[in-house]
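EI: anyone free to look at a 115-residue chain?
SC: sure, send it
EI:
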Amino acid sequence: MHELSIALGIIKIAEDETRKADATKVEKIELQIGALSGVELDALDYVWEQAVKDTVLEGAELEIDFVSGKARCLECQTEFSMEKVYDNCPKCQSYFKEIISGKELLVKALEVIKN
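SC: here you go
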């Protein structure tokens, strides 16, 4: 379960940014997670509360913006939705594609309490 290490990375980012802003606590954190990022949202949710305990994120509202997978076929230029990174083009069946969206995994915003 790599979601624990992802949660710990998010905590590190939040702590660093909170310190830079001369703040003491995070009220809200907004994450952007893509369908093709490899993150299992249920597993992240499962580890989140325990991971953020005694950190600047304890008690913070967690908002996740889910980004659907989308690609463009390099053979026929068709844009199509993807659920898995190995999905092929529904028009020509080619596996050669450019992923347009869905691989995101980032901290989009933090709302902090200043000192």
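EI: Strands lie at 23-34, 61-67, 69-73, 79-82, 97-101, 105-114.
SC: 👍
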